[in-house]
Amino acid sequence: MDSILHNDVKFVAGVGEARARLLDRELSIRTVGDLLNHFPFRYIDRTRIYPIAEVSEAAQLTYVQIRARVLSIGYAGEGRKRRFTVYVQDATGRAELIWFQGIKWIEKRIEVGREYLIFGRPSFYRGLLQLAHPEIETMEQVLSRKAESGMQGIYPSTERLSSALGTKGMYRIIANAWSLLRAPLSDPLPELLRRQYGLIGLHEAYYNIHFPQSAEALRQAQYRLKFDELLGIQLHVQSRRADRMTRHDGFLFPKVGELFNTFYQTKLPFPLTGAQKRVIKEIRQDTVTGFQMNRLLQGDVGSGKTLVALISMLLAVDNGYQACIMAPTEILARQHYASFLRFLDGLPVRVAILTGSSKAKERRTALEGIASGEVQLLIGTHALIEDKVQFQNLGFVVIDEQHRFGVEQRARLWTKNQQPPHILVMTATPIPRTLAMTLYGDLDVSVIDELPPGRKPIQTSHYTDAARLRLWGFLRKQIALGRQVYIVYPLIAESETMDYKDLTDGYEAVSRDFPLPDYRVAICHGKMKPADKEESMRQFKEGEAQILVATSVIEVGVDVPNATVMVIESAERFGLSQLHQLRGRVGRGGEQSYCILMSGEKLSRESRARLDAMCETNDGFRLAELDLKLRGAGDVNGTLQSGMALDLKIANPTRDVQVLTLTREAAEQILKQDPTLEHPAHRGLAQLRERHTAQERIDFSQIS
Ligand code: ADP
Ligand code: MG
């Protein structure tokens, strides 16, 4: 009976061919079902009427409803530029209503002297309230309207769609689509489950999400729809996990051997933190079970993830396997290579590096060495996933700063083996734990929640250009103390040339302002040749250059403990997690470090909130949660980058923690009884699960 849901949306009253094309193009809505799955993102109270004087710019209202009388009307412009203005007034003030389209239709409905209920999006022109294309009703119409709860859904839309449909257009066509249903929507959840979790029926839920009969009914509807969404994901990830656990084809690392022990006892320059030890232990436990390890290691910047990786890789080598670590940038790969060589100096282990810019000899050494098994540890960039790279027996893979890698790239690495290697994914972009559990239900999560001892919290402050002289003064002082400074400029793909100009201008300014012969300024950006980049980094690392002017290429991983100041130019153009990453480049030694955010005077509310948050806390997990909040539910996908994207319409795993917990438990219970969801009563559940299998862009099975 739900077949009507597959009907083309063009047959819904009020849609038709042209609008159907628009709905498809703008929101990928093609069927009646798609339309009913287009949920309001918020609700407004239609019983509330604002006095015009109260609708101020400062109130920042998205929609308002006013009740006002028409004073006069006016026309301006010609042809397509023509506009129709209606001047209205209530007891407190005046406003203008403006139409650019559908003028013929609206002018017939406007009568000077008459009172209307007007609803729309407020904007201001020279302090005067304006509503473009508002929805209007005469007071008679309002009175005859049947009593509703007063709540009206506001639907996500695009500029084009809004101008084609008007304020209430989406609401109308969804109401029309609803009226096409001839029977209740079939419910995927078994009666028993619904009762157990206090869930209303699906049909009722859909009705109330679009046309809430009361605040309580709306709450119930939201709960039900979120439950379905999150349950589908839970069933999906838990089934995957169960599947991995039946395979039992993980490599065994039973031995803690020579390398591991010697390194631990003689090479470690400092004691491991408790958190580092715990994670290493978790990895050791994983690698003796016979199951393939699939572990996500989250640790804030500077928490010492690299060392955990190195030690785990030695464990693999001790047991006769090769290990590799894949870094997101050339600079980072080179840095890992250098520090691995340093750490492993004098130990019987062969290390090689392979990157996109490896010269012939380096490349040959790496390729031949890993094919023959002579090279045991390989460090590299994306180059590691090329087909030419053939391991002899790859047993352990580390992926550093995982959020920089695309999914396919990751997946390709493990197809290099018959048997899947153990996988350790490391990230400093802290995904809130609850979210990680949802998204990575099939990954075990380790957290390094402790920084190496002796670190002083970084002091972060925010300045505008007016403070530039003071900034230079401060930098001079730090350099005089023997410290080093990063100055970072934004790099945004769409306007690379402009950013490049910012950077080079910045470089010149800095070179000019630091003219003393013993200061040296190095520069590093994406357009430089790898060799030149490397040379700049070397100068900075070895202390020959005191200042490094760079784009965000240095965002991840770079480790120069003597650098104590991070200046971020045009900081408002960076996202929160990026700012936090950049800040993590300092505060790596024992000295007090500083992060200085430079921005223009004028900032959007959001940019200001981001910069304020940076000044307030050093805690990456808190920033990550805040980031999600600032960007809102709709953007969860964007935050999670490729591969982790989930197509969630209504649930937000960070906010709906309770529902998430309930669905996790429900999924466990269901799968325990019926692991394959073959039971006839579970057909709907199987469909919920499949929906996510189909939507999921990442194929977890390839990772596991
Ligand atoms: P991240 O987790 O951001 O990748 P790194 O692995 O680059 O951090 O480590 C940051 C710095 O801390 C490095 O200089 C590293 O040598 C140092 N470090 C790592 N572990 C410890 C420890 N247990 N005690 C002191 N310093 C440590
Ligand atoms: Mg790192």
**Distinct compounds present:** adenosine-5'-diphosphate, magnesium ion
Query: Largest sheet, order of strands side by side?
Result: 6-7-4-3-2-5-8
Categorize the overall geometry.
globular
Q: Tell me the name of the CATH homologous superfamily of the domain at 258-448.
A: P-loop containing nucleotide triphosphate hydrolases
Describe the model.
With 704 residues, this protein is α/β, with parallel strands linked by helices. Among the domains are: 48-149, Beta Barrel (OB fold (Dihydrolipoamide Acetyltransferase, E2P)), CATH 2.40.50.140; 258-448, P-loop containing nucleotide triphosphate hydrolases (Rossmann fold, 3-Layer(aba) Sandwich), CATH 3.40.50; 459-617, Rossmann fold, CATH 3.40.50. The protein is 41% helix and 17% strand. The chain has 26 helices and 22 strands. Strands 6-7-4-3-2-5-8 form a seven-stranded mixed sheet. A seven-stranded parallel sheet has the order 12-13-11-14-15-10-16, with helices on both faces. Strand 3 (83-89) and strand 4 (94-99) form a beta hairpin. Helix 1 runs antiparallel to helix 5 (159-165), helix 9 (215-247) crosses helix 24 and helix 10 packs antiparallel against helix 12 (305-318). 40% of the residues are buried. Residues 633-645 and 694-704 have low confidence and may be disordered. Bound molecules: adenosine-5'-diphosphate (ADP) and magnesium ion (MG). Adenosine-5'-diphosphate is lined by residues 270, 272-273, 276, 299, 301-307, 428, 452, 557, 559, 561, 588.
